[in-house]
Amino acid sequence: MTGALTAERILDAAEDTLRRFGPGKTTVVDVARSLGVSHGSVYRHFPNKAALRDAVAERWLQRICVPLHPVVTEDGPAAERAWRWLWLLSTTKREMASNDPELFATYYALASEIREVVSDHLETLTELLARIVADGVRRGEFAVDDPRETARTMLSATTKFHHPAHAAEWADPNLDREFETVWELVRRGLETR
Amino acid sequence: MTGALTAERILDAAEDTLRRFGPGKTTVVDVARSLGVSHGSVYRHFPNKAALRDAVAERWLQRICVPLHPVVTEDGPAAERAWRWLWLLSTTKREMASNDPELFATYYALASEIREVVSDHLETLTELLARIVADGVRRGEFAVDDPRETARTMLSATTKFHHPAHAAEWADPNLDREFETVWELVRRGLETR
Questions:
Q1: Is A178's pLDDT higher than 90?
Q2: pLDDT tier at B1, thresholds 50, 70, 90
Q3: Which residue numbers delimit the HTH tetR-type domain (chains A, B) (predicted)?
């Protein structure tokens, strides 16, 4: 091995090992071996297999959030930003699934083992979108009592376009059109009368 | 074997064989054997394995539609009927999944092999719901240009509550509440101003 053994390098190796062996069969020893280090060296960064697995999954889920943050803090009509935010959430997932279907399927299989990490991720998404919704209420665009609950509802109504269980349906040429019709219904449901 | 070999009896046996062996491994010979008849007798009703498989799946999908038909032809506010129709679609699936999880998972696995049967089923659902939506337009309740497209959009927005890919999430105690918030958003989106 050349260079310092950083947490980032371990996570890269773990992702690679996961892709090859699947979530059930990946061990800390496999990860250490692929880096040419002892498993003790890996444990100095991650106390156990579960901690390593959660850190890999968290990094993956954070990648999904990267393009979403700027849309939250931008100026402009909330409806346009909420549309763009949901569109980015959908297209980021869809690109991940089409660029590396195997890794995407691996992370989706992993998700059932890391329910807490996934539910934290959903809370983060809800909170980001809720800030746009609250902005829409302040601007007089949206008639909404509880922006957080509304954000959760919007994520639920757009499930088909971002939930990995639907990856097999994402190649449908009508999907973009369907996204737009769902968005139109949601937008009308949010608007002040 | 006692009694006549009807198509219905063959379908019952095929469902049972599917449950035991899974969709990939079920053969016409297995089905015939479980009925104590020759596979030739089965072929007199279903010309090949694919025809038998499709007929089993169609029967299963028709069971889901049974409680939905009366809601379409009833009188009363369209919003209330659309809510009830979607609620019945969701709860019928959820009951099937919870009463016999193994058979439900089998049919869901089968669905990827019978895309045409599944898309016909979705068309049937869309058509049923579209009749309620069109009724809502006639009654002055809904502002909708294309009831069929709107019905498809409503099915898409409620994916999480009826698509078998979400069966693992259906035990969530917050699911009924989430259904209601999605429905409220959809209803507001449909209503005339």
A1: yes
A2: low
A3: 4-64
The ipTM, to two decimals, is 0.91
**Domain-by-domain residue ranges, chain B?**
7-47, 58-190
Which numeric CATH code is attached to B58-190? 1.10.357.10
| CATH number listed for the domain at residues A7-47 | 1.10.10.60
The letter for the amino acid at B4 is A
What is the average pLDDT score of chain B? 94
User: How far is residue B134 CA from its own chain's centroid?
Assistant: 22
In this complex, is the C-beta atom of A153 within 8 Å of any C-beta atom belonging to chain B?
A: yes
In a mutational test of the A interface, the residue from B86, B149, B153, B172 whose CB has the highest number of chain A CBs within 10 Å is B153
Q: Would an 8 Å CB–CB cutoff place A148 in contact with chain B?
A: no
d(CA A89, CA B18): 38
Topology, domain A57-190: Tetracycline Repressor; domain 2 (1.10.357)
Q: Is B7-47's fold the same as B58-190's?
A: no
Q: Which two tokens stand for residue A96?
A: 């991940």
Residues of chain A in contact with residue B113, where contact means CB-CB under 8 angstroms, are: none
| Whole-angstrom distance, CA of residue A63 vs CA of residue A71 | 15
Nearest to B188 among A158, A178, A188 (CB): A188
